[in-house]
Every structure is written in C-alpha cells, then in structure tokens.
C-alpha cells in the first residue's frame, strides 16, 4: 500500500468519525424551510395588495377633499380657486381609476374601503389650502411606503407604475406651497387673494377647467 492510499484512508476515517457532528438538513427540514419562505413571500404580496388598495382609497379621499374645497370656494366667491380645486378633484379620481386599471391587469386583489367624509367648512382660505397641502403630503408618504414594499418583494412592474405619481407629487406639493405662501401674504398685501384667484381661474381655463 503506497503512501497516497494510506493518506486517503486516514482522511476517510476522519470524515466518518466527525460525520455525526455535521448537521445536514433532512428532507422534512428543507421542505419546512421552503414552506416558511413561501408563506413569508405570500404575506409580503398580501401586504402589497393591501397597500395598493389603500392607495386607491387615498386617491378617492383626496378627490373628495378637493371637491369639498371647490364647493366652499364657490360659496365664498373665489371662483378661480373653485375651478382649480375641481380640476384637482377630477385628477385625483383619475389617479384612483388608473390604480384600479393597473391592479386588474396585474391580478392585484383590490378591496375598496370607505372614504372618510372631508371637512366642509373652513374659517379662512389659508386653513383650506393648509389642509390641501397636508392631504398631498399624506398621499406622498403613502405612495413612498407602497413603493418601498414593491421594491422589497421585487415587483418591478408596480415600482415602474408608481414613478410618474412620485414626480407628480413633487409638483403638486410645490404648487400648493406656492399658493399657500401667496394666500398668507394677503395679510401684508390686501388684494393679493383676489389676484391669485384670477390667476388660478386663467390657469384652469387654459387647462380646460
């Protein structure tokens, strides 16, 4: 027996001696691990569906907030602001329908929730515009959370679908911040509110509002 054969036999004996100490997953353990992974994946997808449904509700809620604001402005002789908010209300509803359309194409289980009744009265235009800005911020946060979950589960179709909405939220918040600043400046510059109302009327007319 040459030296190489002896070394091979020694190595084999050492492996056999330590074999009981090596923990290998049994078929049952492997199946259990796979089941756990599948269940975890299923829960993640359920959470994505839940958040997707929630976003539909948020878009509809935002539409109601803008619509209520439009009614209030019309009642307070702020026709330009009323038209602007009516356009925004329609746009938010279109967003909700876009989510529903995409969800059906992707076999996402969408469950509509009740839409909370919006405020119907405000003390000042500033209070109204402040509420609208907060509504948009809430919508932005909701979209960001939905996007993070979509990224986590690797649903790139949902992630891609959400991209235009993220950019639109940036524009919406910036627009409302500018309007709110002008509304607040009315205290220092009387007549600015009416000027802003005229500007928004022209803007709405230019966009078919």
Helix-strand blueprint:
Elements: H1 3-18, H2 27-75, H3 79-105, H4 125-153, H5 156-184, H6 192-206
Q: Which characteristics define this entry?
A:
209 residues; mainly alpha; Ferritin; 79% helix; elongated; disordered N terminus
When the domains are counted, the total is: 1
Which residue ranges are poorly predicted, with pLDDT under 50 across at least 5 consecutive positions?
1-34
Biggest beta sheet summary: none
| β-strand amount | under 5%
The CATH homologous superfamily is called Ferritin, core subunit, four-helix bundle
The strand count comes to 0
Helix content: over 70%
Radius of gyration: 29 Å
**Structural class from helices and strands?**
mainly alpha
The CATH topology name reads Ferritin
Q: Mean pLDDT, rounded to whole units?
A: 86
Q: Report the order of strands and helices.
A: HHHHHH
CATH architecture: Up-down Bundle
Instruction: Count every helix, treating DSSP H or I runs of 4 or more residues as helices.
Output: 6
- Morphology call: elongated
Distance between the termini: 97 Å
CATH top level is Mainly Alpha
